[in-house]
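Many introductory courses stop at the sequence. We go one step further.
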Amino acid sequence: MNIHSLHIIGSKQSGGAERFYARLVNALAQRGERVTSITPPGSAINAELNASVEQRHLPLRSVWDLASRWKIGMTARAEGADIVQTYMGRATRLTHFKLGKKPVHVARLGGYYDLKGYRHAHAWVGNTRGICDYLVQHGLPAKRVFHIGNFVEPGAPLSIAEQAIHRRTLGLPHAAWVVSAVGRLHPNKGMADLLDAFHLLPAQLAGRPLHLAIAGDGPLRAALHQHAAQLGISDRVHWLGWQADPAPVYRSADVFVCPSRHEPLGNVILEAWAQGVAVVSTCSQGAQELIEDGVDGVLTPLADANALAGAIRALIGEETTCARLVVQARHKLEQQFSEARIVGEYTALYQHLLTALR
């Protein structure tokens, strides 16, 4: 069955959810499916889409953008879409179709959102089991709630020479140990906890300086810069800003840290695994689903700078331990979070939902 799926997201900036959106629609199109993307004009996502993805652009200004809501309906019907899949609140609230007829509206959730703007969808995809449980516990019919994870594209094995190139490009010292983090500078992401943990570590380990690289932007930028200055670590903290392609940030690191206080999944963990770097993460909801502590990563309690510092210190310079974690993480990616598996699960879901209409 050749399925025409139409995908809608209202974001203009690029983050973890947006990068996954691009990966999924590109992968569906590469499998020969007809795929249409609706995004705002000027969205950073648009440049990431392959030529085989049909692009349409609507303002999607807010949940009250009635003109965009009308045009979504007109576009889906005029182009004969079988499935309309929406991502996050704005796109989902603007999309309305009658239950029991094509197109089937699938709402994909990557967080524990207020479900008021999601209940009108025909089916729901949670990218963690915890989110799916939350959906059912809050009244959505279990037979129309589906768990499908995310996938990332694994990078090639990293050489010392390539790591040096990435560090030079990012302005990081070649001879240092580098700890990295990627995420919005927002309270949920726990970057202040990471700064506190870094402050507890010595300036040098095993004869090499220790540096921290943080890629991201957000409302706490000024406050975090000030916090680093107050801790006396500003000279060893590198603020890389938002990176459209964060792969070099991962690949330049000796250890990657996800210090989030709230993280429904943790795309950054999957991305770090894909780039071959050992991961330390706090015990957020998503991280506990992804990581088997001590096997493919290291887990620490939420908002515990001492524990985070201890976990980082235990990995820095421990090449054998880090290599073991990386090998096990790559195995898990291949088994559970590969493109073939996740895209196959989406196409099977679409076929299941359309068959149910017959």
